[in-house]
Specification:
13% strand, nine-stranded mixed sheet, 52% helix, flat, alpha+beta
């Protein structure tokens, strides 16, 4: 950094005020400005960790002594922040030499803070014991009391769980520090020398720095050969019982979709970026972009609805009942029930129909799905985009701000109205009066027909707005249809429901689980009459629902755990145990079962208990046991695994007996 600063001074013209000018200097400063920010974050985090290390020291005297030195010698976060701001301002004012000087000072300061973090980590793990040994227990001076004994035990426990690489690095530091600080006895003096030694060790000019780098490189290379692979953040593997639960859920969902005449559609996992952009409002920032691979800019699909709209427009389709179960991708912050890769289960109806005809069916499909998945109590929050837009118009929101204000309202299930009010006023430019008017409306929620009647009563502002009046008339038809289909008891009319996606134009809805497992929305959808038209010349109205199956899985798995339900990972009906080393015999017996449509698996092994343990662990109901005697006598043993009963039957009646017992028929 100092060489760079000197190079700048000697190379570039220094103008009035002592700052360098020129394109090269500007480019360098632009490049290094990100380093300035990185150093600021590194220093701030390192200082906090060093402070935490000191606070957690079990030895009171060492903690007190170290804290006094830390406060006296370690740069403070405020100083670091001031220096970062100073360097940023110098860069902004194009005072480039001043910027690089400040950056150099900042790097030195951060190195000192990192040295303190290294020291406090070392003392926390090993140093306190080493100090006491080398100083003859100068700090304590008395026999260890109960609290100190407990602290000592904690230290021992901590040492036992250190990783191999950490232990090697600690030993390296211990050897280096003992050789560097000589025979100083006073613990405070020893700590001060250790600070200086570690600070020097982190100096690239110091010979010990290269030894440290070499040691770290050795540890990293050693770890690479032993390190287990990791799964990407926001994803999860699914196997055995979890996979069985998932397959069961998918089969229920497919059955419901097929009941309503839906046809399958498969679309690519990635789309042209232009296909996805401009469809998701503020959530567009969550789209995963792919690197350019030969001239096309592509992104992973964010949902299944936009690819469906693209397909309909591209193929000139005017009517389509679509079902699709596939993965989608969002660059979101992972949390319980929220992933970056997850399945969506979509049902959509595209085409011209009687008012609210497909809307009713889509909501009905959603309630059927959630009922048949048996997840427990839920509610369907429902609203209408035109009612929402009418409400914003009544409140005085400019039309160009409707969508961005909808995005704010959409967060009401996660944040208080006060937080949303602050966002609408301070960030999105609404007046306090307008925000407060919105607040009075979004609190309205209740039974659909009851609240609808209130909104349509004489004198209601909604009746004076063309858009909201249209929405209220559509909702009346929808609610009466849901009432006739006996599912309206699950529905709540909620004026705070906004659904942040830009493409919705009519009815919008969202299902929320009401049980103990908090996972947020589990299904959602709405009408999108203009989306398909964005990709072609023909407008094809459509409405659909998407089930967030990963969140449903989270609920199902928790319910199974609460109910102590055992889930089988396989559907195997029969386990064939071959007790002689004869693979052709095993092939003959098990193939006979497979050919008869029975689910069977087999193993060749002489140990009977190994077979029984495998059948029990997989909860397979029946075993067929074939040993040398059974082969010679032309029989097999048929064992009821759960009842632990077995009997011998003729070999040629094996399939017949298994089918009878599996079907539960009497002998």
């Amino acid at each position: 950094m100092e060489l760079l600063q000197n190079h700048l001074i000697s190379t570039f013209v220094t103008g009035k005020g002592g700052f360098a000018t020129g394109g090269t200097c500007k480019a360098l400063a632009s490049t290094f400005s990100s380093l300035s920010q990185a150093l600021w974050y590194l220093g701030k985090g390192s200082w906090s960790r060093a402070k935490l290390n000191i606070d957690a020291m079990p030895n009171d005297d060492i903690r007190s002594s170290l804290m006094e030195m830390f406060n006296r010698e370690c740069p403070m976060v405020d100083s670091l922040g001031d220096l970062f701001m100073s360097s940023s301002q110098a860069c902004f004012r194009e005072h480039y030499i001043e910027f690089f000087h400040q950056l150099n000072v900042l790097s030195v300061m951060v190195r000192k803070i990192v040295s303190w973090e290294a020291l406090t980590s070392f003392v926390s793990l090993e140093g306190s014991e080493l100090i006491e040994k080398l100083s003859g227990d100068v700090f304590s001076g008395v026999e260890m009391n109960g609290e100190s004994a407990k602290a000592e035990k904690k230290t021992e426990k901590r040492k036992k769980i250190l990783g191999k690489g950490t232990a090697v690095l600690l030993q390296f530091l211990k050897d280096r520090l003992q050789s560097l600080v000589g025979g100083a006895v006073d613990p405070s003096a020893r700590l001060e020398k250790w600070v200086q030694a570690i600070y020097s060790l982190l100096d690239p000019k110091h010979p010990g720095f290269h030894s440290l780098l070499k040691k770290v490189k050795e540890i990293v290379e050693s770890n690479e050969s032993r390190r287990l692979p990791k799964i990407a953040k926001g994803t999860r593997d699914c196997a055995k019982e979890q996979a069985a639960t998932r397959e069961k859920a998918f089969s229920i969902i497919e059955r419901v979709f097929k009941r309503h005449g839906a046809m399958a559609l498969y679309t690519p996992v990635f789309e042209l970026r232009e296909t996805l952009m401009g469809k998701y409002g503020e959530d567009s920032k969550l789209i995963y972009d792919l690197a350019d691979q030969g001239g096309e800019l592509c992104s992973l699909r964010y949902d299944l609805t936009v690819p469906f709209a693209r397909y309909v427009a591209m193929n000139g389709i005017t009517s389509f009942r679509r079902r699709q179960i596939a993965t989608v991708y969002r660059r979101d912050n992972p949390s319980k029930g929220r992933y970056r890769e997850f399945y969506q289960c979509d049902f959509d109806i595209a085409g011209q129909y009687e008012t609210m005809e497909p809307d009713f069916e889509v909501v009905k499909v959603m309630t059927e799905l959630l009922d048949e998945l048996s997840i427990g109590d839920y509610e369907v929050k429902l609203n209408h985009r035109k009612l929402l837009d009418g409400m914003l118009d009544i409140c005085g929101v400019p039309p160009e701000k409707f969508r961005t204000i909808c995005s704010s309202i959409d967060k009401l299930d996660k944040q208080s109205f006060e937080q949303i009010r602050k966002e609408m006023v301070e960030e999105k430019g609404l007046t306090v009066e307008t925000a407060d008017k919105i607040g009075t409306f979004v609190k309205e929620r209740g039974p659909p027909l009851e609240l609808l009647s209130k909104l349509k009563q004489e004198g209601s502002q909604f009746l004076e707005n063309k858009g909201s009046l249209f929405a209220l008339n559509e909702l009346e038809i929808l609610f009466k249809a849901l009432e006739k289909s006996k599912c309206i008891d699950k529905v709540i009319l909620d004026l705070s429901l906004a659904r942040g996606l830009d493409y919705y134009t009519g009815v919008i809805f969202e299902a929320v689980f009401k049980g103990a497992t908090q996972v947020g929305s589990i299904a959602a959808g709405g009408r999108y009459d203009n989306l398909i038209g964005m990709f072609g010349t023909k407008q094809v109205p459509a409405v659909g629902v998407s089930l967030g199956i990963e969140r449903v899985f989270t609920i199902m798995e928790q319910l199974q755990k609460d109910r102590n339900q055992a889930i089988r990972a396989t559907e195997t009906q029969v386990y064939v145990a071959i007790l002689v080393r004869d693979v052709p015999l095993a092939a003959e017996v098990v193939s006979e079962l497979w050919s008869s449509g029975l689910n069977a698996e087999f193993m060749v092994n002489k140990r009977v208990m190994k077979h029984i343990e495998r059948a029990k662990s997989s909860r397979i109901p029946w075993m067929v046991i074939v040993g040398e005697r059974e082969v010679n006598d032309g029989i097999v043993k048929l064992k009821d695994v759960e009842a632990a009963k077995e009997e011998e039957i003729p070999r040629d009646r094996l399939v017949e007996e298994l089918q009878r017992r599996l079907n539960g028929t009497a002998a």
